[in-house]
Design brief:
Strand 1 and strand 2 form a beta hairpin. Helix 1 crosses helix 2 and helix 1 packs across helix 3. Strands 3, 4, 5, 6, 7, 8, 9, 10 and 11 form a nine-stranded mixed sheet that branches. Strands 1-2 form a two-stranded antiparallel ribbon. The protein folds into three domains: 80 residues, Winged helix-like DNA-binding domain superfamily/Winged helix DNA-binding domain (Arc Repressor Mutant, subunit A), CATH 1.10.10; 99 residues, 3-Layer(aba) Sandwich (D-Maltodextrin-Binding Protein, domain 2), CATH 3.40.190; 94 residues, D-Maltodextrin-Binding Protein, domain 2 (3-Layer(aba) Sandwich), CATH 3.40.190. With 286 residues, it is of the alpha/beta class. It starts with a helix and ends with a helix. It has nine helices and eleven strands. Keywords: DNA-binding, Transcription, Transcription regulation.
């Protein structure tokens, strides 16, 4: 249904004269008449009837004019929402891993409250593979994901990838073992991420450098639970350096064999012209 014709019908309901509608919309009376006739053919019902020298809407015309108010308001709102020069406003859905949400997204959300209060950021905590799936289905607008330098992500052709930051990781061990090297852990049970494969891929690359294949026994998503298992002597696993682990757990620095976790903001290619998304991404990468 042509929104220009709906606008003609709505103006006709207000003004009652095709000549006045033509003046209001800067067109000709003939164009208005043809537009209303075409709209009537589209809906399969007469929309106007003579009323002396003027016309009036039929019951079907009045009903369609009522719908036109809502439809045209929605179209105007959509145009404003998508205007690159407009004040950013709308719901922005972000899927990301916990560390990036804490370190990068929450400070941006706080800033937006003051600078662009019309942006409503909805946060969903997901690991990268899950976030990629949501982004592909257009169920989120932005994904905060990570990989490791030893286990790089495989980007899709439609991914627009913006690097955010990197962080060194080491091996979490009971504090009594903090003097050990990677090769000394060959006979230990290992703990990897249950929701993302990059952790295990990076571990296997590290272990291969040290001359062994790790025996993966546990798969855990929570770093806090990983701490608990390490403290209980149930295994060892990769942990970020600089994070405060529970008492009794230390993170070995791997020196030249260190592994870097790398965080990224990922959107669908060509989507960054939408003002709310552009405002958030610009702040994330600043």
């Amino acid at each position: 249904m042509d929104v220009r014709r709906l606008r003609m019908l709505l103006e006709l309901s207000r003004l009652g004269s095709m000549h006045e509608v033509a003046d209001a919309l800067t067109t000709t009376t003939s164009s208005v008449s043809q537009g209303i006739a075409a709209l009537a053919r589209e809906v399969g019902a007469p929309l106007v009837e003579p009323d002396g020298r003027r016309v009036r809407l039929t019951p079907a015309g009045r009903r369609l004019a009522e719908h036109a108010v809502t439809i045209l308001a929605a179209v105007d709102s959509a145009r404003l929402d998508l205007d690159p020069g407009a004040e950013p406003a709308g719901v922005l859905r972000v899927a990301g891993f916990a560390s990036a949400i804490r370190a990068s997204l929450l400070p941006v959300v706080d800033d937006l409250r003051a600078t662009h209060p019309g942006i409503d950021v909805r946060i969903l905590e997901y690991e990268p593979l899950e976030a990629f799936d949501l982004l592909a289905r257009d169920e989120v607008d932005l994904a905060l994901v990570y990989d490791y330098d030893l286990a790089p992500a495989e980007w899709r052709d439609d991914h627009d990838v913006r690097p955010l930051w990197s962080r060194e990781w080491g091996v979490g061990v009971p504090t009594r073992d903090r003097g050990l090297a990677m090769a000394d852990l060959a006979d230990r049970d290992w703990i990897v991420n249950s929701r993302h494969t990059a952790d295990e891929r990076a571990l296997r690359a590290l272990a291969a450098r040290a001359g062994f294949a790790p025996r993966v026994v546990h798969r855990i998503d929570s770093l806090e639970l990983l701490d608990d298992l390490i403290h209980a002597g149930r295994g060892v696993g990769l942990l970020p350096r600089g994070r405060t682990s529970r008492r009794g757990v230390s993170v070995l620095r791997l020196g030249d064999g260190a592994v870097q976790l790398r965080a990224y903001a990922v959107i669908r290619r060509g989507r960054d012209s939408w003002p709310p998304l552009r405002a958030v991404v610009e702040r994330l990468v600043a």
